[in-house]
Amino acid sequence: MAGKSDSARRSHTKKSKSKGAKDSATAAQKAPPKAEATEASVSEPPPAKPAAMKTKFCLNCQKDLTRNIRITCAECKSQPPFELCVECFAVGIELGEHKKNHKYTVSDCLAFPIVYEPPTAESATSTPAAIGTNAAAFPTTSNDTSNAVWTADEELLLLEGIEMFGMGNWKDIAEHVVTKSDKKCEKHYLTAYLGWKDLMPRFIGDDIEENKDEENKSDKQLSTEDKAAEMNAASDNVVRGAPGERNGPSQLAGYMPLRGDFDVEYDNEAEMILADMEFSEGDHPAERELKLKVIQIYNQKLEKRMQRKKFVVERGLLDYKLHQHTERKRPKEERELLAQVRPFARFQTPEDHDNFVEGLITAMRLKKQILLLQEYRKNGVKTLAEAELYDAEKKKRELDQAIQKQRDSASYLYESGRTTSSRDRANRWQNREQGGSSDASGESSRTRGSSAGALNAIAATFSIEGTPGCHLLTPKEKELCSKLKLLPKHYLVIKDALVRECYRLGYLTKKMAKETAQIDVNTTGHVYDFFVKCGWVKSERYVLLL
C-alpha cells in the first residue's frame, strides 16, 4: 500500500508540473511586448520554491523513515542516498556497493530543514539540488553544503539561544547551538528570519504566491538586500561595542557587555516611584507639580546610574580577577592604603589617581625604611652585615617568645595537670638548690598521707606575687593559689565559671564543678570547698535544707 500511494503521489506531481509548464508557456506567448521587455531586463532567474520533505524509506525492509531515526551512508554517492533503518543497520546489511564498514551519519526525526532563506544573487547562481534534500532548501555556491544546512533541531536551538542570551550575544548563542559558529548564527537569523519584507520566516511546504510580476520581485529583492545590509551594519556596531570595553566576555557576574547593562543596576528600585504615576487633564496644579518633581528626581537617579556605569567601564573594573591578582602581590599595608584612598578615585582622572596612589605608596615605603634605620642606629648597628645579623636574631627571638606564649596557654587549657612543664622543672631545681627542704616535706607528706602537708610544701616554693591579676585577690585567695600552684588569672577564670554555673542552676555539686572547670580533679575539689566555705557557691545539701 505504501508503494502504491507513493507512486500515485509521484504521478500526480508530474502531471501537475507538466500542466503548470504548459500554462506558463501559453501565458508567455500571450504576454504583451512590455512584459517581455521587463522579463528581459531582469537578469536573475526566479528562485524555485523548495519542495516539501520527501518520504524516506529503508532500502532493505522498505520501512517508513520520514519521522524516524535513519542511518545514512557517507561513502555511497548514489541517488537517492543509501539509507537504512536502525534494525537493518544493526545486523550489518550490505546491498550493492554498500558495505557494513562504511562511514555513516545518524539522522533523527528533526534532521530536516524547515526554514529557507530569501533569494539572493548567490543562491540564484547556484546549481539546484535534488528535490527533498537539504541542499534544495538551502542553495549554495559550493559543493559542500554541510555548513550551510540548518536542520529543525538547530533552528530550535538557535531560537532558544536568542531567547536565553538576548539578541546580539552570538558567541553564547553559538555555544548553545554547538554545530554552528557565531557568524553563521548571526547571518542565518538576519537572513532567514529578518531578511523578508514582512520580517517573517518562510517555512518549507507553506503556500507562497508565485504569480507576481518580475518588477515586484526585483523591488522585493532590492529592499531585502538593503535591510540585510542595514541589519549587518547595526549588528557589527553592537558587536564592536563602546570604546574602552573588552571584546571578550566580561569577568564580572551580572554584566552584559554587548548591552552595556548590569542585571542589578545602581538604585535598582528607582523606577518604582513612576510605576503607578499617571497624568490626566483633571490633575490639580499642585499635584501636577509634584509629579514633575518626582520625574526630576528620577532623572537625577538615572544620571547617577550612568555616571557609575561609565566609571566602572572606563576604569576597567569589570575585569576584577586582574585587579585581585595585582593586589595580591602587594604587602598588607599597601592593600589597606589602596582601600582607604579608593573612594577618591571618582574625583580624579585615572592617570591622576594612579599617580596619587603611587606617591602615597612611595612615601609609606620611605617612612618604613627610615624607621628601620632608626631602629638599627638605636641598637648600635652600623654596617649591613650587622643589620642582617640583627634581623636574624630578632626573628629568632620573636619566634621563641611566640612558642613560649603558646606553651603557657596550652598547658592550662588542655593539659594543666601535667607536672612536666617548664615551671614545674624550675621549681624542682629550686628545691634541690635549697638543700632538700621540700624533699623532707614531701617524704613526711607521703608517710603521713596528709594532703595539707603536700600543699604547704608546694606553697613554700611557689609565689604569685607580681603575677598578672594578683592585686584582684584577697589574702585567703592568694594563699589558696599558692597552695594549689594556680596562677591568679587562671583562678579568676575558674571562679567566674563556677559562680555563673551556680547562679544558673541555683546550686552546684562537686561533680558538676569538675565538669565545668575541666582541670585537675584535686585542684577543682579544693577550689569548690573554698567557694562553699566563703558562701559564693551553694551546695546541694544547702538547697535541700531550704
TrEMBL record:
The protein's name in its UniProt record: Transcriptional adapter
SWIRM domain sequence ranges: 453-546
Location of the region described as Disordered in the Swiss-Prot/TrEMBL record: 1-51, 209-233, 410-449
Predominant location: nucleus
Biased composition (Polar residues): 432-449
Molecular function GO terms recorded: chromatin binding; transcription coactivator activity; zinc ion binding
Record GO cellular component, one term: nucleus
Matches recorded under InterPro entries: ADA2-like_ZZ, Ada2/TADA2, Homeodomain-like_sf, Myb_dom, SANT/Myb, SANT_dom, SWIRM, TADA2A_B-like_dom
Biased composition, class Basic residues, residue ranges: 10-19
SMART domains cross-referenced by the UniProt entry: SANT (SM00717)
SANT domain: residues covered: 145-197
Coiled coil spans: 382-409
GO biological process: chromatin remodeling; regulation of transcription by RNA polymerase II
Basic and acidic residues bias spans: 214-229, 421-431
Keyword Ribosomal protein attached: no
Every ZZ-type domain range: 53-112
Origin: domain of life: Eukaryota
Keywords from the named record: Coiled coil, Metal-binding, Nucleus, Transcription, Transcription regulation, Zinc, Zinc-finger
